[in-house]
Description:
Elements lengths: L1 H16 L15 E2 L4 E3 L5 E3 L7 E7 L4 H17 L4 E7 L5 H11 L4 E4 L2 H8 L6 E5 L4 E7 L4 H21 L1
Parallel strand pairs: 4-5, 5-6
Antiparallel strand pairs: 1-8, 2-3, 4-7, 7-8
Amino acid sequence: MKARTLGKIALVVLCFVLPASTSADLAPDSARRTSPDFTLTDSTGASIKLSGYKGRVVLLDFWATWCGGCKEEISWYMNFQNKYKDSGLSVIGVSLDDDGWKSVKPFLAELKVNYTVVIGEWDEMARRFGFDQLPVTLLIDREGRIADSHTGMIDKDAFEKEIHILLKESASAKRAN
Length: 177
């Protein structure tokens, strides 16, 4: 009985540790659907509207301070924000912590998070975006359409390739117009 329980626990842990994807698997342009919109408040009280980022590639990360995989990914997303913000990438984190800013503000200050973070409500965000576990990360193209969705920890290198593809794809489309 104990071995079976340990096996189940190990499987659950692996689900949060192993990457969800190992290659670039962006949806073809014609298959992308418009991202649900939201307006949420950041730590300064400013309203952040997702659709206001149209024209930029958005990395949208749903996370919580208690989520181990989420914590690891945040440092990667800070790196992506630094490397690609001038090329058109915006990172937005949506914390789903039940106690809101109480636990999130000290967490952000400790890590010195360099991108926009807002607080969302689990039931509402899960219903709107169709997830049931964390972490969940979406890549949204410049037209506001979901190009990819990852549940569980991402493969950092594969995800960075997807960002490159979207930034190039978006830049090519802008030049054509």
